[in-house]
Input
Amino acid sequence: MTRKSLVVVAVAAVSTASLAAGPESTPVLDAMKVELARSLDALQANPTPPYFLGYDLTEVQEFSVTSSFGAITDRSDERRRALDVQLRVGSHGFDNTHSSAHTDFPDFSRFLDAPVDVPIDDDPMAIRAALWYETQQRYRHAVEQLNNARTSARLQVAPEDSSPDFSRESPEHYIEPRLQLTVDRRGWEEKLRRYTAPFAQQRDIYGANAFFTAAVETHSYVNSEGTEIQTSQPRYRLLIAAFSKADDGMELPRYESFFAATPEGLPDDRVVLQAVDRMIADLQTLRRAPVIDPYTGPAILSGRASAVFFHEILGHRLEGHRQKNEDEGQTFTRRVSDAVLPAGFSVYFDPTMQRFGNTDLAGYYRFDDEGVRGRRVAVIERGVLRTFLMSRMPIEGFANSNGHGRRQVGFSPVARQSNLIVQVAAPQTRAQLKQQLLDQIRRQHKPFGLLFDDIEGGFTITHRGIPNAFEVLPIMVYRVFPNGREELVRGVDLIGTPLTVFSKVTAGDDQVAVFNGMCGAESGVVPVSAVSPAVLISQIEVQKKPKSSERAPILPPPPTAAPHDTGDVVLRAMQDELARSMSELRLDTMPRPYFLSYRIDEVSNLDVWGSRGSLTRSDAGRTRRLSVELHVGDYAFDNTNFLSMPTNVAAMVSDFDEGTSGLPLDDDYAAMRRELWLATDRHYKVAVATLAQKRTALANRTRRDPLPDFTREEPVTLGDATPLPRSDQAAIEDLVRGTSAAFRDAPEIYQSDVAWSGGSVRSWYVNSEGTSFTRTAPWAAIRINATTQASDASPLDDGLAVYATSPGDLPTRDTLMQRVRAFADRLTRLRATAPESYNGPVLFEGAAAAELFAFVFGPGLAANRLPDSDLPMFQRFAGMEKGMLDQVGARVLPRSFSVVENPALRVYEGKPIGGALIDDDGVRTRETKLVDHGVLRTLLATRVPVAGISRSTGSRRGDRAGVTNLFVTTDSGLSDAQLRQRALALAKQSGTGYVIVVRRLRNGGAMPRGFAAMIAAMSSSEQGPSVPLADAVKLYPDGHEEPIRGALLSGVTTASFKNIAAASRSRTAATLSTAGGLEGGMLAMVRLIPGGFRGIFALETATYVVPSLLFDDVAIRKPTADNAAPPAFGPPWSAK
Output
């Protein structure tokens, strides 16, 4: 969005009409061409072969950094590749993309096809493997689409536009070298600190961020028509955003943005800091500016405002596919050769234009996303409509593309805008244009006109059935009085309908400006530019801007001076702001907080993915997230434990934004306190409102045995630091390459990957009761996934995960290679087995027993209280919630079993298992006996009391009570051999002839959390969920085993554990992800209330130490879903 004013006659537009030759080919293009030819040849034998196939591989190298109030809040540095496959079956005239004339519901599959990660190493076979697998998926989908399209076409009336579905275009050959990203990373971090530091001196500016992104996007494209293209394009963006708030609650944003094709093209510090000073001055003036009422009358749109105006209102309606779609408004479909603008106005689009004067254009490209050369398109000449922007979707009268088929990665291309240029044949001077505005004001007897000087963006609606309107969102608007005086105003948006406003365009001036931005539509978000002079419109309409009713922060900004001591800056900032809030935070006669806590989690991570010996991604990062807990009222009755969707939706969104937006990564005392101040203010206002609503809701309700809302706990001061190992990124990348390469020896595995993830969480916590702790905890994980199909075409996929408390505790390279090979071998052998159902004894050995206990029984050991609510539906649903709280004092396991939770224990039999000395409530952890000789004695609890459990057990993890280290023991355990003999004896009694032995659940039995868990719980039966078994065998009396596949464990509930038939003396310690478990649907819904998003960024694990478990009667079911067709042709490594 570089702002530049130029005189039209002096502008030199730079374009790339001639394309320089580059290298003949590249390893990536060669791999793509080989696999494309092989795919086409193999698919020709099918009844419905493709007539077009295209591969588009996009590689992005990107560095980005964000700052706020003088401190860095986020940085990332990554390289990734993504594949899009364009496959068409049928013919150019009618193919699988054919749309019905009218649709009751849009077919989003046309526009959103998720891209596939492709190796970032130039490994031809790994790249071809990704191409082959995705081609299979797209081909199946395309055939289904074609059949559906043919049926729909026969059932509906003939379309108004019977043009073909796809155009024929000449092949292109253009290859340029892949550019490398060039950027001074440390230098830009320092720049962004300087750019946002001035905002910290302003008490009335509540948000200020600078975003810098440097990227090189390389496209490698081949298609079945013979096109071969590789382009490599750098882009550099700087955006500065700040907002203030008027006394009436209206939020007042201000933006400055800059775009360039090189780092040197961005402005220097002096220019940027001058823009920052203007932003600050504008925001202060806007706070005092009057709000005007809805108005209609004459107005001038500055060059930037006019550019957005033409882009939104005109440009989108000139996109070719909108003329064919009968759900569109089709404003201009029948108006070719008609005058649609004044005779002096011309509009063209030119993606080959790199610069306009000295300003780089964001909408520049050589070829579009369908492999068609970009070209200049004069859509309106002297007011007369001549043509449309065209992709490869023909429309009546326009059979070919003009290089405007564009998309975001993962979407399907449609006609989109590029560089829009508005020209005026007889431009006025700015003074002349203003005089014409004054003349219009007097002629129309208006008290004033308007001048739209700057805008933040806009949007338009082009579909039928919805008002065909637009809205432009101005920031700086001036009221112009008949005497020429200008007055800044606020609170208006420019609205209207296209034909009406086009008929009112009167004149343009000689001051041309460029708007560089991002445009979102059906095919995703693409970079665009719009170039326009200021224009006079004789009549526009404005409406009032939406306005928040939230007051400005209650307390003034905190002091900016840092303390003199050199201790922990983060902890000191938290303590100081907490003390100020507790002593001073109060609004009128509303209650003060009685409890306040801050927790900051700093998450450092390294994630590396690989497939068949090549890396697909390698990312390292560090973030800081803030959690605020603020209570008003008292321990007996406060604002918590209450849910009311109508008023808490905004709070929920705010809480999610707080949980996902970053705190300063710099140890900047002033910046940290400012973020704490603003977050505390938001939470206080929500808390006061929630308390009032809760009192109203419960006033006329009889509560049985009302519980306090919060417990009192003794203050604790603690440091719980675990040494943090450093991860060698290069060594880990080598490990992932090596282990993922093991799948090369498993040719029947179609798709596979190995992912290494490790990092640490460093936490700071303080509360108003005097508790303070710091804590560090490393973590590491390796995940292995693979996909294939069985001999009967049923899908086969499996995942294996290993979790550890530190990277050093993960398996060695040799051990990991052995496990990957064994995993691949077992999955390959499963292809030949047949699925079957079973009822009888089942033995869960080793890790499978721990996984089953964690998934089914473990969640019931946590006492997570359901909130009160003023929603009747919620109350009815809550009444259906089942847990183990009402079973305290009853037998839940065999008499020989006991269960103990001990979070403080960090080693079991010489193996590190994690743990913590203090929980997320600031309560010391301790050993808790949950089950004693089969009888449930208590449950894990947080500081929120539940019936019968009045104190915390030190078990809060994230937003709920949960297991850390759980130990299951039995007094009557058998040896492993004895347990197997017992299982076979039960099998003999049941007449099955064999017993099922389960060694691993699929993905540890993990199930989705949050809203997805709520839906899963609502849809599952009362007999329990179906749990997929990953590694299970039939064990026969003679000792031989036969693997089974597709097995689903059915009907196992917490009640099933009461009747465990036998258990082993030996126990297995399994560290598992806590992103699963059979938590109830209502508890999942509770996570949508404020505070429910705190634990979603760091890996959470729990260790279960459990003996092998034998159940005497368990149902195992085979899958009932239809199978997909087998691959149409083999993978590339199978080719001879």
About this structure: Confidence is low (pLDDT under 50) at residues 1-20, 648-653, 1005-1021, 1076-1096. The longest strand covers residues 524-544. The chain has four domains: 26-270, 295-544, 569-822, 833-1117. The radius of gyration is 33 Å.
